[in-house]
Design a protein that fits this description.
The chain is an alpha+beta fold. The chain has five helices and five strands, in the order αββαββαβαα.
């Protein structure tokens, strides 16, 4: 029986907000931002995309804010796509749904405008950015609903 590789589970299940609060006390001249859930997608140690995940309940993002300008520069300097992705977790009525917003020109090479995606479409995009095909065993478990 072959053992299928599994993504490691979350190690802590919580974020330490104490450093965030303490950092604010270090002064206005040291701006920083708490990101909701940034993920650096990578392949063989090479960055593929920067994605800032936001719950559908999160407030609207200001892409002109200093924090998002800094993240855009980071992605641009790395020549990788940068997306802000809102998500709706699955319920009994529907599967996961994603609203993907391209932030930089590298992102627009894959997704040219804001759009709603099913879990299947979104995960297919993640594989496409890696120049890989979505495996059938994963395809079968993904939701196909793109409406909330």
């Amino acid at each position: 029986m072959s053992k299928k590789p599994v993504t490691p589970p979350e190690r802590t299940g919580w974020r330490d907000e104490r450093i965030s609060r303490r950092h604010r006390e270090w002064g206005f001249a040291l701006p920083a931002v708490d990101l909701d859930f940034p993920l650096l997608e990578y392949q063989f140690g090479k960055p593929i995309a920067l994605i800032e995940y936001k719950s559908y309940q999160a407030r609207t993002v200001n892409l002109n804010s200093a924090s998002f300008r800094a993240m855009t520069i980071l992605a641009d300097n790395s020549a990788i796509p940068f997306y802000v992705v809102r998500y709706w977790a699955s319920t009994q009525q529907r599967s996961w749904v994603f609203r993907i917003a391209p932030v930089n020109t590298y992102a627009m090479m894959f997704v040219d405008s804001i759009r709603m995606m099913s879990e299947l479409d979104f995960v297919t995009l993640l594989y496409t950015m890696r120049h890989q095909q979505l495996p059938d065993d994963i395809r079968r478990i993904l939701g196909t609903t793109s409406t909330i």
